[in-house]
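Translate sequence into structure tokens.
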Amino acid sequence: MKYTLLVTRQCNLRCDYCYVGKDASSMPLERARRIVDFAFARTPPADTIDFAFFGGEPLLEFDLIRDITAYIQRHDQYDAARVQLTVVSNGTHFNDAIAAYVRDNQVAFGISCDGPPEVHDRFRRYKGGKGSSAKVEETIRAATEAFSRVMVNAVCRPETLDALPHTIDYFSGLGVRQIYLSPDYSAHWTGEHAARLPEVYGRVGERYKEYYRRGDPHFISLVDSKISVILRGGYQPQERCSMGRGELAFTPDGGIYPCERLVGDGERGDGHRIGHIDTGIELRRMSCHRADDAVEAPLTLCADCGLKPFCMNWCGCSNYFASGYYDRASAFLCASERAAIACAAGVYHQLESELGNVFFDHATGSPLMNSA
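Result follows.
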């Protein structure tokens, strides 16, 4: 069960592809406490709970995050074994107090960075237009020194697709060993881009294999997540999209959304907003409409595809941004998933033949263990 709290809509960056509307609002502590109570009351006792702090830039409200954390840990249903805390930052705010909070509370700490300066600064800039790469790189270096594990998430767009292998090299040189690659499905991807995916993903796979050969495994989501899924025979039910049920997002005004990627600017709440913390959830309000320029894969393509168990065709927010529907995969998502599955299968067979049984943890659903 995942509960994402947008503690603020304030942000010092103006990233071109950001899906969260910006304003001066922040979440009152009392409202955050009601959300925490709601989460504990709603979550079955056997399930884990991930409280994720998001924004805007959440660390602009660092004191609020600490206060919410304290309330979570004092809650009469709190159990450290089943509660995970996560902070996802744009990397422009980091200091000793933040580092101590992350360590002391075993927080999963993620930084958004699209790659080296010439890639990152193309889309992730300050309000005045200046690139943010210098400060973000400084934060990544400090975080990798302070913590045993740092997540870095890179958004990939058509303009930066060919730079993905270089981006992997850049993160590796900064000491990052947990790398997530996230295509921007809302971007204008063409058939030409889709045709280049096997070659680009293949070069990422070559980097991955070389790290293993050196005895320095890196977790790269594009490869590791697919190897794990292949070895387990497909995505398991609990891994598939549970937006609106096992995953909820809360805006500063108390609005409830099925996923943090669908909160928008709050002006179009009727499309994705499914309730309010004061009145509860109304799943019947989940609705969306076809995007005017959407190009979705034919439904029969998914129905008859042998790769369907290993494909993220079920990701509601990715589907919406690309096709205008929660339940229709786009042609680009199809091409990306096919290329990723082929890349992962090739990496797996090559390294197994060279190094032996190196993916035992992947088969158990724990692909992070090798890099850890």
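Note: Residues 185 and 221 are 16 Å apart (CA to CA).
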